[in-house]
Amino acid sequence: MRYKCINAMGIEKYDEHGFPTGSYGVITEGSVWYEDDVNMIGGEVHLECESGCEGCGWIEITRAHLAECFEVIN
After folding, report:
1. Domains in the chain: how many in total?
2. Cβ distance 32 to 13 under 8 Å?
């Protein structure tokens, strides 16, 4: 499933191995993401960046954040 961010949100950044980097980023409105089955840090939903995601290749968020900050797109 694909999603577009409709409400910007701050996130803690993790490296490619799932360890926190100590820095934070912002998921910008209009960025496009797709859901997959990977689980790096125990989040409810794992999203991979498709476009418009400066400095964030993937995120893991709760279902509540998904409903609040993203909308389904084709």
Report:
1. 1
2. no
